[in-house]
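Q: Got a minute? One more chain.
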Amino acid sequence: MIVAEPEIVLDTLAGITSPALVLQGDRDEVTIEHSMAVAAALPEARLAVLPGAHTLLLDYPELVNQLIISYLRGTGISSSAEHADRGMAGL
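A: Always. Here it is, folded:
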């Protein structure tokens, strides 16, 4: 995005059969709608949008680690009010 945006044809993502976790800050340059489209195009994807974030690893390092570990363990994180209060949405 600094020099040129990657051009990903969403239809090609359907061939990826591995589970995927799409992480997005709601202040990222990539729109939330685009991340939603990417997650929808991946057969086994989950999307997590963190509010108030642009640089996820710098803004929420512990939360990002928790999301990734939870995802890899297959436990997932619900979108309950408790988790939403801590900045997680979408899982």
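A: The first strand starts at residue 20 and ends at 25.
Q: Perfect, thanks.
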